[in-house]
Amino acid sequence: MDARLATLIGGVLLVGCSVPEAPGERVLVDTQPIIGGVLDNWRAYVVGVGNTQGTFCTGTVISQRTVLTAGHCFQGISRVYFGNDVSMGNNPPSVAVVTKRRHPDYSSSTLANDLSVLELAQDSPVQPAPLLRETMANTPAFIGPDFAHVGYGDDGNGGYDIRRVVTFPILAVGPANVGLQTGTGPIDATMYFYAQPGKNTCFGDSGGPAFVPRGLVEHVAGTTSFGDPNCAIDGVDARADLPQINAFIQSWIDQWEGVNNPCRSNGTCDETCNVNNTLVDPDCAQNHCGADGMCVLSCVSPIDPDCMGAVDYCGPDGACDPSCNPIDVDCLAEQGGSGGAPPVGGAGGAGGAGATGTGGAGGAGATGTGGAGATGTGGAGATGTGGAGATGTGGTTPTGGAGPVARIDPGDVSGRGGCGCRVPDSSAPEGGWLLVGLAAALVGLRRRAR
Asked: Is the pTM of this model over 0.85?
């Protein structure tokens, strides 16, 4: 049975979507297109997560039989879909999920530890992405480089089946007192925060990866979790770095794929796993970014020459293709010409959403003097003198209130319309959907996942 409720308070009607598993679970509102993104036609290890009727979240293949996604996506997952377009009309390849585990310390009220792992019934048909086996911190290694956020979120036309990517730097690794004006923050030690003008994740991207380059290869640093209701100001990802690998992720990889299996993701490369010019062990990716006959998709700085020609890498997709003419903007970012919020410095430059900006068009860097590069002098600093400062006297200053929204897909899996939620209620059979309306007066009282 579908539960449908519309509540009118103070003359304002706000209809949202959700599938609460228990009191305090996220409630979803509004739908928006992916913000500032482009099509992603090559990250095969980013997959659609859902059930036999379609996808409602995003995930990442991180080992032969293991997929990483968001904790708030956990309920109702039974299948993983592969391809650039996973719409059911295209009959996309898929693999059943036989086991799933959510982080034992997941909180539905704060979205702390917002991670789940899925065991596939058979080996993934695509190569896995390597995990970030480092501990994130508020240092230039993490606050500055562009992260590539990927997901199957709302395309603005009612579809949730096309993989897209958007690149921008993050602003803070938790714990941190950020996002206070929108209700997104503060964040705890299991999260990191971003606020980039014109770029964001949104509904349906939940569980999708954020990649950060290390050496020549991109690594999974986190998964899309929640943010402001309109996907217009800020967002938060769940960290999937070394502390979470050690506390949660690795143990399930070991149990499902065998602790003595050298080909699983474990931080150690075993080249005997990679046969027929196919990458099986994701920890070996760095060894095959040259012209050796093996196309490794996670090689992005620059791309693996063995992958050239198969897809178009020339857009702002987080991968540098030196063969592009005009020059690939991702290659400029590698040279320090774009992206990157300076970790220290003065008054931000032009454009952006400065956290304490006082007007004008301030930047979105952490505290730097601007610059789209890590040390550049133009661009976006969080304490810049312009932009949409959270406490600034000019620009588009948010006035708080609405609070963050879980970035899970609120579309109707059967009708692709209206506001029928695509995540099955824990008490309903697959295909039974729960539609919940909330009054605007309640929206600011709770976080909501994407």
From this structure: no
